[in-house]
# Entry
Amino acid sequence: MKPPILALKNVRLADGPRMLFDGVDLALEPRSRAALVGRNGAGKSTLMRILAGLTEADDGERAVTPGTRVAYVLQEPLIEGETLLDHATAGGAAPHEAAAALESFGLDPAKGATGLSGGETRRVALARALAEDPDVLLLDEPTNHLDILAIETLEGAIAASRASVLIVSHDRAFLERVTQRCFWLENRKVRKLDRGFSAFDAWVEQLTAAEADEARRLDKALERETHWLARGVTGRRARNEGRRRRLMEMRATKADRLRDTRGSMSMGVASAGASGQRVVEVKGLSKKFGDRVILEDFSTRILRGDRIAVVGPNGAGKTTLVKLLLGELPADSGEVILGTNLEVAYIDQARADLKDDMLLKDALAPLGGDQIMVRGAPKHVAAYAKEFLFTDAQIRQPVRSLSGGERNRLLLARALAQPANLMVLDEPTNDLDMETLDLLEEMLSDYEGTLILVSHDRDFVDRLATSTIGLNGRGQVVETPGGWLDFLSQNPGFFGVSPAKAPGGRRGQPSPAAPTLAPAPPTAPKAAKLSYKEQRRLEELNGLIAELPGKIAVLETQLADPGLYGRDPAAFDRFGQALAAARGRLEAAEMEWLELEERREALEAGR
# Structure
């Protein structure tokens, strides 16, 4: 393994009375691609600032190879200068490289740098970092506010870059595509997995099970030693002083464990009673602003229990469509019919209802007092806030003191307190840690009402959506059953082709593994049926799709053994790698089968 170009050794940092890091080690080798994973509040952004040299640790060492150039994209970047090109060149990038990077993200270099949307701000910051041709690229939540096409452009840029990249992100699909290693920040320390993010969850599950066993053994030992101490250590003080010290150390260990154990979130939503079977019906809907067409002659019907995802590029009109569906915005033509008995909970991506000087308790209980109605029953506001991991001290703090993830949790707490049979979530995943995302996904999966979800998180959409509505920004709107991958496979070329040129120009084309949106298939001579080779391949895929789920189930059972990692770490790694490979083969086989099956049907229909 090559020596690291940037590393932390035994780093310690306190945040007031709270120890944030206690002996953190982290090393980045040349061209490595790593994820930094941890809960909201664990200190990921602070650790990135230490790596970037912007924050100094209380103790420990930051080592960097002389001449190493570090580019850091903050979670909330600030854009300065008169034009986007001014900002993109402020770090030393050549103007032509900065302009190429901006254009690869769909930005005009001559555009003014004020009044930018969240997505534009993020793309400008990424373009500047990539144009600087760094040796180390630190990305803190880089996919926040990006549309899916911009995310895939970023994936291609990372694949083409020679930089060592460390990423903090909640976007599972993004991390699975670009990382080869994981750093887990938990309990003030960092642990390393020398595999990509696709293996992270199984690894953490095994570590957690092993630690639970260790905790039970510690509790038993502490119980025995406490009983021994109570029976009279004083009479054997000299002989047993060592044993007494070990008891004190065990007590300190348990105290540390209890202090580091964060409470679990309690997230739930109650239906406000069944809505009508028809929730929303749209007939011939059209909307434009000036000469810009948002949608034209669009019709759909949303029924009770549907989970509708709305996807498309930034600025395509996703939020506009949602407001049209809810009757909050008038259409130019067409008809919107809302169902009966609708109770709507709406989380706005702009977080417009949260004012910086508002106290957290007032955000939850705007009418005053210490009580809040939670799904029809009164509850103390502090007790309810604790269910979303807010401390007593935070209850009386202003909203401005909250992190992005905490603000999103606050919005979720407010929305979920009210019974609703139609939930509308506009970019709910921004800034949330993965544990909260998993809990939100589980809650929404069990939700009995109707869901409209606007999201750029491909994994989140694929796991939840029963159908997906796509807008391409050119007035076209298409609805397809299933999630994001289903939409892409059934509507190739709908969004257009992702830019082929990677930001930064010098690194050439993205690698073949870099994901891009599928271009429209080329025109080919008509055939009456699949070729012999294609037909044989379709039969092979049928066999694979039938066989692989059984192999995956066997591997999952083997990895579920809580003692496997402790007994045989090498076997655990083999099984994990085999599981990831089998899942990848199944997904690839299903996609290839779908393409061949659609081709077969099209050929038969054209006879």
Summary: The first strand starts at residue 6 and ends at 15.
